[in-house]
Write a structure and sequence with these properties.
heterodimer, A: alpha/beta, 11-stranded mixed sheet, 16 helices, globular, B: alpha+beta, Arc Repressor Mutant, subunit A, 3 domains, 9-stranded mixed sheet, 3-stranded antiparallel sheet, 15 helices, about 35% helix, elongated
Chain lengths: ~475, ~500
């Protein structure tokens, strides 16, 4: 990270960087990228980081300002999940990810806007209003980690945390022209990260470059005894792996990712990026993921089913929003949930409840789980002959605010290339690969489980040989 | 012909045994009973956003222990599932339980009935689940208070097959399970605190029918007596209804002990679709052969095996063996008494008990454990672990009895003194001068004195009134303050009276 270098050489201080980030955030309130700006907390953390920086060796992230997606619980700092339901919720605990980045002395400046409970692909489903795309403020930044992506793309912070349940890191990274990594399921602890769909939820980072992602993931990853689904295996040295040449790397190009519905401009940019990989010594191999088209229907059964149960705890009894003057217990429940949740969240709770109901469970939930295994098998089969699988992160570039709002199915179709990766639990990265209609295009690379180092290496080598990731929206320094 | 005319009741029990772990099933919070409301609650227990359940292996080990004791199949992978419903004492909006793949399946348990028969009860499954909190309807002026201390406490739900055919069988089975879980140390069995409770599924069918009738479920009955009464009531209610041509409605009913009846329960549990599905926060619970072997290595001798040993190897009557094995602490006490009694060789042949016991002291130790000790404990409301007379102390007393140092009657007095804290048997005997008079010279002197004192009675006796023998025994005992060796006294007296 360039900033880390400057900090170590004492050309600047954590406090100075934090002040700049806070000022930049205030300067771009038009983006609506933050739900909570924590000036006091940030300046105090910066001061601690400056002390740490006087000692050697300080953490590589010491003193670097960043933002947390408002899905990560922060002790003493309001955590809303962009929902009216948690508008007043102040957790008495930190998410493991929050603890780990605090231990690395990174400086959190606040909590980033997002789709409510991480449900959305446009960041229009926030109780706090939509986030704007820094490349074109009439367009969406993608979702659900839209606030995180916009903050990084607008140069306010060099990185932000995000979560990815069905593309929620990769799709906004693609729309905002930045790099976003989704790790293997279980690689990063979910403790303290507000649940959407437990078997799909992953936490990670959006940043300017693969190298920065590697730096942050190194600080976030690892086993956590507070998360029973956390992987108990050593974390690879992501930074050490970055320099490896790509000679001999076999990249599978999934033909299903270039089918109907993909914009020509997006396809052209991605094909050009793949050519670049050939120049770097990689071999392109045609591969097939025959069940790719089933990913969206399976995902939109499994994720809402889990969500319908995960969100049952918001009942107005213990914390969060509670309906005023309930006439009965039933009234407390129905009004709290009717008033506290937004439309998309309610839609998914209804879909999920239906999918789990007696008489429908086998036809929906169980069948979706069988499809999930087919999809995982497709990837396993492909990875017998290739090291990575490539394709466009999204079929289109960022669309206009309001464009797909009234059509949930069109909105869900945005996730066509990303959700299969979550169903299979694999790691994937989206990196800037060019432009279409002056808007960023994302290239998605997918790796076998726990091969984050291979992904980051391939992305970093591409970024050494290209400058798509260095492009910034007009007016961003 | 059944006791119910042409009808046969069919009963299955779901027993909830609270596992005696230090912490909850999915959190580190304490499971101790009786704390101030909502003080034994962690982040996970009150279902704060982002918190996750982490399984408690100690609870799993206890489930395996129970599974081994009922000769069941222990699943190498069992799956936690969510049972979804809304209720204020259920913080997550779902209960974590096991549904399709329980940790323990297909067990069996031998149950001895009061009439002496033994039945084998098939146990369908035993699964782990978390308890809910408590709703407190008093003291809140029309509102409901919620105490989440109990939320997340580990339960083992033990589900029998519908193979119990009377209230008596159901209760005998429930008692046997109660003994077993306490014996194994997996549950404290405290029914007042709700550590052991039971739901009963009851149906009746014509004796000639194979097909089960429509069942009703009686919820949450927490004493043996009430279970028996509730089932009895429900059987009779169903038979009455069927004989009147009515149909039985499948429903949940509550037992009202004040009125001795069951009535339909309305509200939360009815007509719920629980939408069970595997809990995605919890990977399948893996149990390896090594895990099972580790639990096996710590298994105690089971109550049924021990009962059989007491009959076969110690020669105890069935009834004594069953009573001793109703509770592991009692059986252990009995064995500790036996283990510290002096060996057979030291015992005088004529004092060997005459009950046909294979072990010379077993019957004596059993009599005292089930008699004096048990009575004293009951009176003082103590458990046998709290007995004021320890097993070795009782053994010393029984040894003196065996050796003829004191008589059986005196032994009871000595026991009472020991219970009262006057020291061990030898100390009490010494201090109170209770040593039995076995010296024939001293006994002869006492007899002579008595015979001299009662010439009329002596003449009567010699005239053929043999009943007066007991009178003379009594008088000598009185003179010796009960310390005369009874056998010796009898022999000497008969000689003198000739």
């Amino acid at each position: 990270m360039q900033l880390a270098q400057a900090l170590r050489e004492r050309k600047t201080s954590a406090t100075e960087l934090t002040r700049q980030a806070l000022a930049a955030a205030k300067n771009r309130v038009d983006l609506n990228a933050l739900i909570t700006l924590d000036e006091t907390g940030a300046l105090a953390a910066a001061e601690r980081a400056d002390t740490a920086l006087t000692k050697n060796p300080a953490s590589a992230l010491a003193g670097i300002p960043f933002a947390h997606k408002d899905i990560f619980c922060t002790n003493g700092l309001r955590t809303t999940c962009a929902s009216r339901m948690l508008d007043n919720f102040v957790p008495p605990y930190n998410a493991t990810v929050v603890d780990k980045l605090a231990a690395a002395q990174a400086v959190a400046i606040g909590k980033a806007n997002m789709d409510e409970f991480a449900m959305g692909s446009s960041n229009e489903n926030s109780f706090y209003g939509p986030v704007k795309n820094p490349w074109d403020t009439a367009r969406v930044p993608g979702g659900s980690s839209g606030g995180s992506a916009a903050l990084v793309a607008a140069g306010i912070v060099p990185f932000a945390t995000g979560t990815d349940t069905g593309g929620s890191i990769r799709q906004p990274a693609a729309f905002c022209g930045i790099t976003g990594l989704k790790p293997t399921y279980g690689r990063v602890s979910r403790f303290g990260m507000i649940a959407f769909a437990s078997s799909l939820d992953t936490a990670s980072v959006l940043a300017r470059s693969a190298e920065d992602c590697a730096q942050v993931l190194a600080a976030m990853a690892g086993h956590d005894g507070r998360d029973a689904t956390s992987a108990d295996r050593a974390v690879d040295d992501y930074l050490a792996a970055l320099a490896k040449p790509l000679q001999g790397l076999r990249i599978g190009v999934a033909r299903e990712y270039f089918g109907a519905g993909i914009d020509a401009g997006v396809a052209a940019a991605v094909q050009a990026a793949l050519k670049q990989y050939e120049k770097l010594g990689a071999t392109l191999v045609d591969v097939s993921l025959p069940n790719a088209a089933l990913a969206i229907p399976a995902y939109y059964v499994i994720a809402p089913a889990e969500a319908s149960s995960n969100l049952a705890r918001y009942d107005g009894v213990r914390y969060g929003y509670a309906a005023k003057e309930p006439k009965s217990l039933e009234d407390l429940y129905t009004r709290t949930r009717a008033e506290g949740f937004g439309a998309e969240v309610k839609r998914r709770i209804l879909v999920g409840t239906y999918a789990l109901s007696a008489g429908y469970y086998d036809a929906y939930y169980l069948r979706a789980q069988r499809v999930r295994r087919l999809i995982a098998n497709d990837f396993a089969e492909a990875f017998k002959t290739v090291d990575l699988i490539a394709g466009p992160t999204t079929p289109t570039v960022a669309f206009k605010l309001g464009e797909k709002n009234s059509d949930p199915l069109a909105m869900y179709a945005e996730d066509v290339n990303t959700v299969a990766v979550n169903l299979a639990g694999l790691p994937a990265i989206s990196l800037p690969a060019g432009f279409s209609e002056k808007l960023p295009v994302g290239l998605q690379l997918i790796a076998p489980a726990f091969e984050e180092a291979r992904l980051l290496n391939a992305a970093h080598q591409f970024q050494l040989a290209s400058d798509w990731h260095a492009h910034k929206p007009e007016g961003v320094a | 012909m059944s006791a119910y005319g042409n009808w046969q009741p069919v009963i299955g029990l779901e027993i909830h045994a609270q596992l005696s772990t230090q912490s909850k099933l999915f959190s580190g919070a304490s499971t101790a009973y009786g704390a101030e409301p909502n003080t034994h609650t962690g982040l996970v227990d009150i279902a704060l956003p982002g918190t996750l359940p982490v399984p408690n292996r100690a609870a799993l080990d206890k489930a395996i222990r129970f599974g081994l004791a009922i000769d069941a199949r222990i699943a190498s992978h069992s799956v936690f599932a969510r049972k979804n419903y809304f209720y204020p004492d259920l913080p997550k909006g779902y209960q974590i339980s096991q549904y399709e793949l329980p940790v323990v399946a297909e067990g069996k348990l031998a149950v001895r009935l009061d009439d002496g028969r033994t039945i084998e009860v098939a146990i369908e499954r035993a699964h782990l689940e978390e308890d809910a909190g408590k709703s407190l309807h008093e003291e809140f002026h029309g509102a409901t208070g919620i105490d989440l201390n109990r939320a997340g406490t580990p339960l083992l739900e033990i589900v029998s097959k519908p193979v119990l055919y009377s209230a008596a069988e159901a209760v005998a089975y429930m008692r046997t399970v109660h003994t077993l879980v306490r014996w194994l140390g997996v549950c404290d069995g405290n029914m007042q605190e709700g550590s052991f409770r039971c739901d009963a599924n009851v149906s009746v069918r014509p004796v000639s029918s194979e097909k089960l009738g429509t069942r009703t479920e009686i919820k949450n009955v927490n004493s043996f007596r009430f279970v028996e009464k509730a089932i009895e009531y429900e059987i009779e209610r169903q038979i009455r209804a069927l004989e009147n041509g009515e149909r039985i409605v499948q429903e949940t009913r509550l037992y009202d002990p004040a009125r001795h009846q069951t009535r339909p329960m309305r509200g939360k549990e009815d007509a719920n679709d629980y939408r069970y599905f595997p809990d995605p926060d919890l990977p399948p619970l893996a149990v390896t052969a090594d895990d099972i072997a580790a639990v096996k290595a710590t298994m105690p001798e089971l109550p049924e095996a021990r009962r059989k040993r007491y009959v076969d190897a110690l020669g105890l009557p069935e009834i004594d063996a069953a009573q001793l094995c109703a509770d592991r602490a009692t059986a252990d006490y009995f064995e500790a008494v036996l283990a510290t009694l002096p060996g057979e060789a030291k015992l005088a042949a004529e004092t060997l008990n005459t009950q046909g016991a294979l072990h010379p002291d077993a019957k004596l130790a059993a009599n005292w454990t089930l008699g004096e000790v048990s009575a004293a404990l009951n009176e003082a409301a103590l458990s046998i672990e709290q007995s004021r007379v320890s097993a070795p102390a009782l053994a010393q007393l029984l040894a003196r009895l065996r050796e003829g140092v004191i008589s059986g009657k005196i032994a009871k007095d000595v026991f009472a003194a020991m219970w009262g804290g006057e020291g061990d048997a030898d100390a009490v005997i010494e201090k109170r001068g209770l040593k039995q008079i076995s010296d024939s010279g001293a006994l002869a002197a006492a007899i002579n004195a008595v015979l001299a004192e009662y010439p009329t009675q002596l003449a009567d006796f010699r005239g053929g009134n043999e009943k007066l023998l007991q009178f003379f025994v009594g008088q000598v005992m009185k003179r010796t303050r009960g310390q005369a060796n009874p056998q010796q006294l009898n022999a000497l007296l008969r000689e003198k009276l000739k």
